Amino acid sequence: MGMEYAPNNMHQMIRGYADIGLTMPTEYAKLYTYQMFRALGYMHALGLCHRDIKPRNLLVYPNWGVLKLCDFGSAKNLNDGRPNALYICSRHYRAPELLFGTRNYTVAVDIWSAGCVYAELILGRILYPGKTVAEQRNLVTRQLPKELIEIAPPDVVELVISTLSLKASLRPSAFESCAYRCYDQLRYGDILIPNDQPLPPLFNFNHTEVKAAGILIKELLPRQLL
Q: Is the predicted pLDDT of residue 226 greater than 70, yes or no?
């Protein structure tokens, strides 16, 4: 079976920047995380939860500025009548409700994982690096590192804090995340990817996405597309 070649995953990108003492530039972090949330929005609209969002499962095409989800082996329709696995998702990106034993979880577990990924892009290291489940439980109940709040732009901190709410029902949906003001730079800015190419299509929402977004679509689209 032929598979599409991807030059990098997000884990490799993060480590590459860390090796030279840097973190991913804010503009590129916004570009890639926006596509991560948009992809999750499409999955959730189809009734599917990914359940293993982490940097290694995010394929990156730097020359095009494109990010794609991969590894759907843990994906599931949470409302299909089958029991939902409790031990799911890589530990460092596992939502609190999973860590504390809830089986009736929602797609909000993906939002938590995505928030952890965004924080990792900012910090250049894993946000909650628990070595055991017990240590992970302890870490996720602490406040966000002061360093993250100090170095990230306020609009990014606003989104990350929302996605990392301990209460699942308070986390934004994937499309609500895309509508946060930190992504206005993509909607109205002039960001170029490293080779000075224009941004990939970010607002070509299909029927499924438009239906799932509802009235939020007006906030997701640049004004010139309304």
A: no
> Of 30-34, 73-77, 158-162, 220-224, which range is least confident?
220-224
Cα distance between residue 163 and residue 57, in whole Å: 19
Contact predicate 180/172, CB 8 Å: yes
How far, rounded to the nearest angstrom, does the alpha carbon of residue 138 sit from its chain's CA centroid?
Answer: 22
CB atoms within 10 A of CB 204: 8
Distance CA 128, CA 26 (A): 21
pLDDT in tens, 11-42: 999 999 999 999 999 999 999 999 999 999 99
- 0.85 cut: is pTM over it? yes
**Which residue, among 38, 13, 26, 6, has the nearest Cα to 201 in the 3D structure?**
38
For residue 159, give Cα distances in angstroms to 64, 149, 154, 178, 194.
25, 11, 9, 9, 25
CA 145, CA 138: separation in Å to the nearest integer? 14
Distance, CA of 50 to CA of 54 (rounded, Å):
10
For the segment(s) 8-77+84-225, the CATH number from 1.10.510.10, 1.10.287.1490, 1.10.3720.10, 3.10.129.10 is 1.10.510.10
Which residues are marked as active site? 52
SS3 for 207? Answer: helix
